[in-house]
Amino acid sequence: MSTIETNISTPTQKTLFEAKKERQKCEQDFILLTNRIKLLQLEEEKSRKHIEESKKKQLLLEKAQKRSIEKTKFKEELQNSFEKQRKIKQKWIQDLKFKISKNKECSLKNIEEAKKKVYIQMRNQRDQSLIEKYQILNDIAKKNKERSLSVREEHKKFSIKTKKLEKLRESQNKSEYIKRLNDELNIKTELKSKFSEMETLESELIKRLQNTQSIQLKAFADLNNFKRKPLSP
Hints:
Elements: H1 3-7, H2 11-102, H3 108-174, H4 184-228
Helix pairs in contact: 2-3, 2-4
């Protein structure tokens, strides 16, 4: 304030000085409240990101567990197939021995033909088992490829969505809200009105942040419980 304004002691000049001081105080309160709201919005955004990451990690763990279960099931089926072939082979050998013991009078030619027949049957059975094995492996590889493509597509969509949100935030940050008021008393009145609205918004954001943080804690708890869950066969 200049020396001339200080020396003037009329009621009008004194009222303007007080109005300026009150307006400046309102502006400072408004700036502080705006900063608090920005911090609350940032905290809410961080909490939502943590929730999305937790859900994403849990989904990946579930898929990994499912693949492990399928792999274990395939090994068991393959082992059962080998065991079945072994029993069939033993039965064929036993049948062959039984036929040999019962047919001692048969010629060596007939015995050789019987052995060849058993060998051909065993070979055909082995080939069929290998075909089934390769078919199972191909099916598993196909399923894994489809899952990989699905996960890749989800990552791509998530990346596009994140970029759009970043561009939107940049656009919002670049926009400026400039408003000039010629009358100091009108500025004071408008600031008071805005201050009341911002207090209401601050209260709502605090409630929303508390709710979001509760959801985040639940998501983390679900994820930890899932990690401690034993692998089911």
